[in-house]
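Exercise 7. Given the components listed, write out the predicted structure of the assembled complex. Treat all entries as one system.
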Amino acid sequence: MKAKQLAMGLFLLSAIATILVWTPSCTPSPEDGLTGAPTATARAIPDKIDFNFHVKPILSDRCFKCHGPDEKSREGGLALHDKEMAFAALGDNLDRHAIIPGDLEHSTLIQRIFATDDNDRMPPPESNLALDDYEKAILKKWVEQGAEWKSHWAFIPPVKPDIPRVKNKGWAANEIDYFILAKLEAHNLAPSEREAKEKLIRRVTFGLTGLPPTLAEIDGFVNDPAPDAFEKAVDRLLASQAYAERMALEWMDLARYADTHGYQDDFERIMWPWRDWVIHAYDENMPYDQFVKWQLAGDLLPNPSLEQIIATAFNRNHKITAEGGVIDEEYRTEYVADRAQTFATAFLGLTMECARCHDHKYDPIKQKDYYALFGFFNTIPEKGLVEEINRSAAVVPEPSITITNQQIESIARFINNRDSLPEIGLMVMREMDHPRKTYILNRGQYDQPTEEVQPAPPPSILPMKPEWSQDRLGLAEWLFDEGNPLTARVVVNRLWQQLFGNGIVATSFDFGNQGALPTHPELLDFLAIKFREEGWDTKALLKYMVLSSTYQQSAKVSEELLERDPENRWLARAPRLRLKAEMIRDQALKASGLLNEEVGGPSVKPYQPAGIWEETTGGGGGSTAKYIQDTGTELYRRSMYTFWKRTVPPPSMMAFDAPSRDLCTVKRQETNTPLQALVLLNDPQVVEASRMLAHRAIDNAGGEVRERIAYMFRLATSRTPGEEELALLAQYFEEERLRFSGQPESAAQYLRVGEYTLQTETEDAELAAYALVANAILNLDEAITRG
Amino acid sequence: MKKILDERSLQLNRRAFLSKTATGIGVAALSSILGYSFFRKNESGLLVEEKGGLKGVLDALHHPAKAKRVIYLFQSGGPSQLDLFDYKPLLNERRGEDLPESVRNGQRLTGMTSGQDVFPLAGSLFDFKQYGQSGAWVSSLLPYTSQIVDELCIIKSMYTEAINHDPAITFFQTGSQQPGRPSIGSWLSYGLGSENENLPAFSVLLSRGTGRPNGQPLYSRLWGNGFLHSLHQGVQFRAAQDPVLYLNDPEGMTRAQRRNMLDKLAELNTRQFGDYGDPEIQSRIAQYEMAYRMQTSVPEVMNIENEPDYIYQMYGPDAMRPGTFAANCILARRLAERGVRFIQLYHMGWDQHDNLPEAIQKQAKDVDQASAALVMDLKQRGMLEDTLIIWGGEFGRTNYSQGTLTDTNYGRDHHPRCFTIWMAGGGVKPGLVYGETDDFGYNIVDKPMHVHDLQATLLHLLGIDHERLTYKYQGRRFRLTDVEGDVVKDVLA
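Answer.
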């Protein structure tokens, strides 16, 4: 019996594989790949149709808009998101059925999608949602095969899966590898060889700390023959402050952290003490459930500590307006909506905001459910319009606390009060004495309240239990209840994404019907349950992931792999990822020796093109009207500390796909543009770092040109260059030295970029030529990639 | 499968080409060999080829286009339609009388005037006359514009939903009041691509008005790509040392040195591609070449010194000063000549809450001559017929005075219910005055045109059905016009 099930499982897997492997990777369609919904034609129809993998993506994407959860826009009484409704009798005489299992002729769904008359065909031509032949064939075959229905995977709590059997057991380092290997073997794919050690240490150092390894760290790892050499390196990285900073940066995107209020004059705000707390929490390896509970409801805990209250600033990172003349309630409503959206995206992987104006079109979330969630965040004593003290400053919006320097020196030592402020005002969460009522807002409009609702999380995910309080604390209990199908999956998926570029669910922000399907559903559930059962231990889970053989594979893309799995869904190789914006700048600083590794404190203002704040300001905004650049070591702090002005974010970060921090973001774009080239070639920060990298090589790497070049190359790529690469760069150096020798003034000019004054005896022409070589190296594709 | 194989063999050919030529002749020609295939990982992490540079995502236009490009002269702050185009003698006749509640009819007010006890009607202090064959009314604030009314399609019945700057500008530029969506130019770049592979398809120019130099600000997200590929973001062209951010090579570095560096980079990156086979590397090589060409093409387009004298005379004396609206209008024409798809100007300072009569004279003078000159300059070059020009702000202004009304002074608050914009060229009907407001200049009485209608019409003129240019993000198909918008056929030529 067991063997039969396994065989069936494999059969199913290969059926799915047929689809995925045949999906062209480079179709220009913007629709492609976002849901896993098949779009291209000329693909093989699988032998056995699976509802979740093949059918529902089509129904959701093309049919739910008019035949889905939103009752108000439902047509013809037909709903296809729900089994009972989909099979129900239709029409005035209840004599028709959209779907009759096995009966193509009488299933009106099939009749309508194949109809040739424009008036009959579904979806209607004007909807721009037409089905292609492949999609029609899938639906037809599904009905033919009996129209088997399954619930949406993400709304069913995970169950611990069996560890799959594999042939190549020797390859597996832990359970992750069994899950990965089982799929690879089912697809006749083999895992790649282990990555070269110097590449591996680069990958894991960026993955866990956001920084490149030092040469000593590379050498230490490469020359350590011990079987646990990698594990020791991982432990070292996880224990570092840089790890906490790396994790905090991910959390800042999710929490839409910024140093300004974000609308109109865009006044400065002080939220960095909360950011320092996040770093502190990661440094302490605070369990994820506690970490989130404090941020959601620290103020509602019994006798909350200062730290627990500071954590709640999470929910005050949304934008706030000070634009004279706005209607207070309109914007206050936006802030509550922002908190609800952030909660849903960050912790549930749901696009709840779609239900603000009407029932959700794709997921089982009613408009009422949206406002019930909204209700949790609607009862704080806040205003929609922040007062300006004058045109140069805004008050700290209520509710807020004042953190004294004395507290910072005793119970809040994680706050880096480097400017020795006597006290710091920080926005936090607090409940109103007389809570405001929450109403459904017609069309989402602040001035159109209809029915009153009580705070509650979406019941279709998990109903509230009576013992939980009807406030944010109760919401946090609900979130971490064992019966919640989403919480653990969503977070382990994000941690996987941090290391592998893509989550097991590629749409880490959407686990609903329009989201991508998990490539390895059993692995996702295995990790989710493991994480929860082992106490939500983030460091342990990351360590477990990087110690897998899957993580440690080579990133080489063989021609066979590019053909058979161009998107690397099955992980027969490690992904090759472009560094994030902050990592690119931090690497340049670190490689050059300039990096200032101070942790936390007020955000800093490094180099930025002159005038970009000034030319958009209306004269208001005070400290944000004019960019006053920092000097000295503040220019070289890690990029996560760069002052974030929301309406004019740092252009060198934006060029490399940093999110604007307007809204909760859990996955960044990864693009490749000419503006990126211009930043890396011409940004004074990079040019200065190039000079300092050159200087460092001259000082530390022996007297030979090639030695020095190899030294710089290793610092930027973590790899020893090959002979041909060295020869080419050495030739480049000689060409440029010759050129600069004839133009000493040009060399001197090039060396003057940036503020760092260098005391050196090296001739200008030589140093400038090395600096060009260093800049070229920092521009290598490999230097901005973690393979 | 065949497609993958084709792609693959193309890559192999490219690789063979690169290894043969990269060292010898330089890689200047590389991009034309590679073509403009931009790869990126979409939000699901799949590698998708984005047809950028030369071609947009639309394989074919939805219908024949009338306009190939757009110049949007955005008048930021909300120009007073009542002092420029929408002539309302009744307001002079009933000057000082309180706005009847029957006219206001529940309109919500901004916090700046909601506390006022009275709303004294304020007729314009400026003279209005009718001009041209169309007989359009224009005030004495716009002497140059009034001379070209027969080229313009003046829409007096625009309306919006927002009553404050930030949401209102964001709404005009992205179709949504809250930040985060792509702007019009990004949608066009995404849909249609570029006609010039050396310049960004979406260019932005800013200028500051003299009417209220410290008024309301702008936000760089107004030209942001939102969730679209960052290739589609608006690139700001500036009257600064770096006309595009980070464009200039560092001091002390020659073009020959830059070329040499890029050649070496390409060779090393090509080698890396040989080892790792990641198509992203090829794309990176192409991006560096595009950057190199931009370093030449941007200064070339920004250098207006060689424009003949008569052009300067046409655009007015401000045109000699870089960074002014007039100078930006010349740049807009130059960008249009080079095939840039969407050229967005912002002129700040139209926010005349108080002291309007004095401030608006300066503000109008900033833009009047150059706006008219741009229309006629394009016309004399034969480009007006396929270039759409739009002139207007984010909302209008109230018919009553904000603050005290005196014989010589008044101010006006924001007004969303009606305001005036004009369009020219690119398939709109010239010499047309469209829509009508009531005698109080407060409500539209005929042919209302919503912001989404304008956006739909703009896309229509470019050959795009606004309901069919979509991008699926977070499970939903987004479009510029959200879920609304109708093409206003009456204004089409």
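Discussion: The longest strand of chain A covers residues 400-404. Chain A touches chain B through 122 residues (CB under 8 Å).
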